[in-house]
Structure formats: C-alpha cells, structure tokens
Amino acid sequence: MSDKVLLDYGSGGRASQRLVSGLFLEHLGNEELDRLNDAAVFTLSGRTAMSTDSFTVDPIFFPGGDIGSLAVHGTVNDVAMMGAIPRYITCGYIIEEGLPMDDLERIVASMGEACRHAGVHVVSGDTKVVPRGAVDKIFINTTGVGEVIADPEPGGDRARPGDAVLISGTIGDHGLTVLGTREGLDFEAKVESDSAALNHLLVRLVQELPDVHVLRDPTRGGLATTLNEITVSSNVCCELVEDDLPVRPEVRGGCSLLGLDPLYLANEGKFICVVPEADAEKALAIMRADPLGTDARRIGTMTDANPGKVVLVTRLGGKRLLGMLEGEQLPRIC
C-alpha cells in the first residue's frame, strides 16, 4: 500500500480491498467482520440499548488517547450508561486524501486494542476517502448495541429528591488536554485525557445495586451542563458542594491560567451516578474498588427546592446558580 491514503482507497475496487484486508481486518477482525458481508448478523436477547456518535477531535492524537480509542470509548460508555453490556459496534471512517498511512494504522490499531479491552466486537464498517480539504484528516462514526441488564434501567428522568449525586473521578482532564495539545500549550504539570471504557465498572455497579436512578457521562458541556439536563428531565434541583468537587491541581491551575471552568470541560472517562441515599456508600465502595473509580466521591444531593436548576454551594458558604454551557467553549473536543 501507499504511504499515504489515496482516493483510490475509497473506490470500492482493488485498492479498497487491499486497505480493508491489509489494515482494518488485521486490527479489528473477528469471525463476523471477516465474512465481509453487506450487514452483520448477531443475536441479542431481551431489551437492547443502542447509541451512535461521530468523532472529529482535533488533534487526532493527544496525551492519553487518540481519535481511534476515543471513538470506541465514547460509544461503549454511552451504551453502558443505560445499564447495558455493550456487545457490538460498527465503524464508519471518512478519511482525507493524503493522510499518512502510518497515522491511519496507528488509529485503527488503537481502536482494536480499545475493543479488546472493552470486550466488544466490530461487526460492520465503511470507509470513504474524500479529496484534500473536504475533511480534516479523519472523522469516525461508531454505533454500539448492547444487552440491558438493569431493571429498571437508569435514565435522566429518574432522579428523585434526596438522592445522592456521585462522580467516578476528577473532572476536566480531557477538555484541558485536548485544548493544550491543540494550541501547543506547555503546562507546568503534565495533563492527559481520561479517555477510557467504563463498561466493566458500570456493569458491576448495576449488578450489585438494585436501583441506580441515573448514569450519565459528562462529555461535551462538562459536569454542570449534564447535571442541568438531568435536573430538567427529572424536575429536581441538584445542590453541589464546591469543596467536594474532584479537580486535579494541574487541571485547576491550567483552567485558572486560561480562564476556563473545569465544571464545563469535557470528560471521557468519568460518569455521574445518582442513587438513593441509602445506597450511596455502597455505590462509592464499588466504584473505588475499580482503577477507573479510585477518586470517586459524593458531590451533592438532589432536592426539590429549585426544580430544573443546579446550585453550587461555594467555599464561602454562598450559593451560585450553574447554568448550561452557552456557546461552544471548546469546539471539536471529541
């Protein structure tokens, strides 16, 4: 194959076949994908969760991850947030002519590793190559399906007054990392993305707790925006305690320097968990027993005081209303 992606690789002809067999199947291949049929055939029992997402992150490589692993993690996590075991994903690639073949192989290899770690199979895919300038390097779409094991399944409309609000770890890591890499910023301390597949931890959580009310990953718009979505859907108020919000010192320092608020920065390896008060400590113990949840903590409580609002109790004891993100704080963050 050429050392760069050519338009011929999207033609459907011999060049396309060489790309599929020599690169995609090498890293993503499995019994179903290797058949190269027009569609995949698989079996799921009971209720099914499905999610789709497109990834355009810039830059395509960043500390802690790349667009390939991110495309797997993002979709696997979305399916798992419904109390489901992710099983299969599809991948669609839109590639700019001229992308170095080494970069493409690095991305696909990263996807393969992420799939194996998450325990999912790529069963269908598509590749398009477009002329230079039509896209920026590479865009990836992934769709995931999984078997729902939680009954009832978590949902953004199921938070209730008195529920405990938990977070699985520190916030703002991914957003600040991507911004810093994109702009060539040199922070005093190393920052890196938290991109990770959360499904194994989430499966344990819903298996061991009878009724997890809400699971959400605070990606674009960050923690504050996602909590606003939950409070509106559930018609409750979320009261956060500022001193309890986990933010790494290097992230806090970088945000202070750039005038950013970590509450609104994207996360790609954290989740919000809303459970009845009686289950809060058990939920935290389950989360902290996993490497991806060691920094889990309680950050607030759902109340009926101001339905549809998120209120921050500040270090000085005052209260500040946290609205949804206005505009695009950081474009192309995922």
Automatic annotation (TrEMBL):
Gene Ontology biological-process annotations: protein maturation
CDD domains associated with the record: HypE (cd02197)
Record PANTHER family: CARBAMOYL DEHYDRATASE HYPE (PTHR30303:SF0), HYDROGENASE ISOENZYMES FORMATION PROTEIN HYPE (PTHR30303)
Family affiliation: Belongs to the HypE family.
Domain PurM-like C-terminal positions: 160-311
Alphabetized Pfam families for the sequence: AIRS, AIRS_C
Top-level taxonomy: Bacteria, Pseudomonadati, Thermodesulfobacteriota, Desulfovibrionia, Desulfovibrionales
Naturally occurring in which organism (per UniProt): Pseudodesulfovibrio senegalensis
InterPro entries reported for this sequence: HypE, PurM-like_C_dom, PurM-like_C_sf, PurM-like_N, PurM-like_N_sf
Domain PurM-like N-terminal: 37-148
Protein name listed in UniProt: Hydrogenase expression/formation protein HypE
